[in-house]
C-alpha cells in the first residue's frame, strides 16, 4: 500500500473529524492508530503509542508546563490581576479611555505570572468589564479591549503556547520566553495609543470619570506600588532566565513557589478552598494539555511514516520562488486554519511539516516562533473560533453576546497587523534580547 496515499487519507479524515466536533486529542489518536495499523500492524501501532507516551512525558521540557500552569492558577487565585488593574487605573487617571488603558497594561502585567490567554481574558472580563459598563463605556469598545488584551499571554512569558512550540520544534523554551518580551510590551503600547486616540476622537466610547480629577501624584505612585507582587514574581522569573541563574524548568518551580508564598502572605491562599481550587484547576489544565500533546506527537510519527513532511519540505524548498513568498503562504495557511481550529491544534498539525521548511529556507527559528505567536494572538479573538472571545463572553455575564465581542475586536486586530508587519520587517525586535542572552 502506498504510504503517502494513506497519509493523505489520514489528514483528510482528521480535518473531517475536526469539523464534526470530535475532541482534538481523540481525533489525533484515532487517525494515527488506524493509519499506523494500516501501514504496519496493530501491534506496531500499540507499541509506538506506548513509546510516544513515555518518551514525550519523560522529556525535561514537559516539566516546564505544569509548573507555569500552577504558577498562573495560584496567581489568579491570589488576586494579582485585580491588584494590577486597580493600581494601573489610578496610575493612568485622566488619560482618555483610562479603564481600557489600565486593562491593556494590567493584562500585560498579569501575563508575566499567568501563561494562559483564556485565563487572562476570563479574569479581566470579571474585573474590568463591570467597571467599564458602570462608567458607561461603549459596550463593544470595552469587550474588544478586554478580549484582545487577554491575548498578550500568548506572547509575554511564561506563555503556555511558547512551551507547546518548544515541545513540537525543540527550540529552547527559555530563549522563546525572552524573545517574547519586547513584542509583547510593544503590542501593549500600540493598544494603549490606539485606545487614547479613539477615545479622544469619540469621547462617547470612553467617558472621562469625574473622580479621576481628584487623583493626585501620590495616588498614581501608590497605584504603581500595588503592582509589587507581580513585579517581584515576574522579575525574579524573567530576570533569572535572562541572567542565566536558572533554567526554564527551575524558573517555573521558583515562580510556583513564589506565587504560593505571596498568596499565603497576603491572605487569599490562606483559604484552603481557594488553594484546593487553584491546584485542581492547574491539574485539570495540565492533564488536558498533556493528552493533546502526546496525541499530537503520536500523529506526527504517523505523518513521518507516510513521508508527507519530507515530500512537502522537498517541494517547497525546491520551489523556484523567493523564500518570502513561501513564508507568506505559510502565514496564510495559519490564518485560514485559525478561523476553524484552535491554535494548539493548528500548531500540532502543521509544525512537524512547516518548521523544517522554514529552517531549510534559512529563517531564524526564534523569530519564526514570534511570528507564529502573533498569528496565535489574532486567531484567539477572530471568528468563528476565537477562544478568547468565547472565554470573555462566558465570564462577563449573560447580557454579553459573542457577536458583540467579535464586533469590538477589529480595531485591535488592525493594531496586531501593524505589529505583525513590524516583526516581519525588523526581526531584531524579536531577536535582540535572546541574542544578548546567548
UniProtKB/TrEMBL annotation:
Annotated protein name in UniProt: TRAP transporter large permease protein
MF terms in GO: transmembrane transporter activity
InterPro entries: DctM, TRAP_DctM
Purpose: Part of the tripartite ATP-independent periplasmic (TRAP) transport system.
Subunit record text: The complex comprises the extracytoplasmic solute receptor protein and the two transmembrane proteins.
Cellular localisation: Cell inner membrane
Primary localisation category: membrane
Keywords: Cell inner membrane, Cell membrane, Membrane, Transmembrane, Transmembrane helix, Transport
Transmembrane segments: 31-50, 62-81, 101-129, 141-168, 174-197, 224-245, 284-304, 324-357, 378-397, 409-433
Amino acid at each position: 500500500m502506498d504510504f503517502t496515499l494513506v497519509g493523505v487519507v489520514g489528514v483528510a479524515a482528521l480535518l473531517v473529524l475536526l469539523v464534526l466536533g470530535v475532541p482534538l486529542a481523540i481525533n489525533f489518536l484515532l487517525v494515527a492508530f488506524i493509519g499506523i495499523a494500516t501501514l504496519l500492524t496493530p501491534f506496531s501501532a500499540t507499541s509506538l503509542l506506548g513509546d510516544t507516551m513515555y518518551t514525550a512525558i519523560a522529556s525535561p521540557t514537559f516539566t516546564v508546563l505544569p509548573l507555569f500552569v500552577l504558577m498562573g492558577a495560584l496567581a489568579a487565585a491570589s488576586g494579582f490581576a485585580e491588584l494590577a488593574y486597580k493600581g494601573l487605573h489610578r496610575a493612568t487617571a485622566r488619560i482618555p479611555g483610562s479603564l481600557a488603558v489600565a486593562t491593556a497594561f494590567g493584562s500585560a502585567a498579569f501575563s508575566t505570572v499567568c501563561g494562559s490567554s483564556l485565563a487572562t481574558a476570563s479574569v479581566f472580563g470579571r474585573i474590568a468589564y463591570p467597571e467599564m459598563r458602570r462608567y458607561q463605556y461603549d459596550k463593544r469598545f470595552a469587550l474588544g479591549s478586554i478580549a484582545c488584551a487577554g491575548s498578550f499571554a500568548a506572547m509575554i512569558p511564561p506563555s503556555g503556547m511558547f512551551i507547546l512550540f518548544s515541545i513540537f520544534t525543540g527550540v529552547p523554551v527559555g530563549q522563546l520566553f525572552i524573545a517574547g518580551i519586547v513584542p509583547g510590551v510593544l503590542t501593549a503600547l500600540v493598544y494603549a495609543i490606539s485606545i487614547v486616540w479613539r477615545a479622544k476622537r469619540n469621547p462617547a466610547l470612553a467617558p472621562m470619570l469625574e473622580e479621576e480629577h481628584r487623583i493626585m501624584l501620590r495616588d498614581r505612585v501608590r497605584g504603581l506600588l500595588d503592582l509589587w507582587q507581580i513585579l517581584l514574581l515576574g522579575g525574579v522569573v524573567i530576570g533569572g532566565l535572562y541572567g542565566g541563574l536558572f533554567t526554564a524548568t527551575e524558573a517555573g518551580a521558583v515562580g510556583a513557589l513564589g506565587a504560593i508564598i505571596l498568596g499565603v502572605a497576603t491572605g487569599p491562599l490562606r483559604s484552603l478552598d481557594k488553594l484546593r481550587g487553584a491546584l485542581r484547576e492547574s491539574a485539570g489544565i495540565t492533564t488536558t494539555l498533556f493528552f493533546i500533546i502526546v496525541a499530537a506527537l503520536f500523529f506526527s510519527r504517523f505523518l513521518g511514516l507516510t513521508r508527507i513532511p519530507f515530500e512537502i519540505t522537498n517541494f517547497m524548498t525546491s520551489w523556484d520562488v523567493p523564500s518570502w513568498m513561501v513564508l507568506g503562504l505559510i502565514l496564510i495557511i495559519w490564518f485560514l486554519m485559525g478561523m476553524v481550529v484552535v491554535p494548539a491544534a493548528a500548531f500540532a498539525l502543521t509544525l512537524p511539516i512547516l518548521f523544517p521548511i522554514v529552517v531549510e529556507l534559512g529563517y531564524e527559528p526564534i523569530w519564526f516562533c514570534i511570528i507564529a505567536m502573533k498569528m496565535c494572538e489574532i486567531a484567539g479573538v477572530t471568528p468563528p473560533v476565537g477562544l478568547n472571545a468565547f472565554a470573555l463572553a462566558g465570564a462577563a455575564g449573560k447580557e454579553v453576546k459573542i457577536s458583540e465581542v467579535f464586533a469590538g475586536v477589529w480595531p485591535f486586530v488592525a493594531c496586531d497587523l501593524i505589529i505583525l508587519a513590524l516583526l516581519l520587517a525588523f526581526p531584531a525586535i524579536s531577536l535582540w534580547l535572546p541574542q544578548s542572552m546567548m
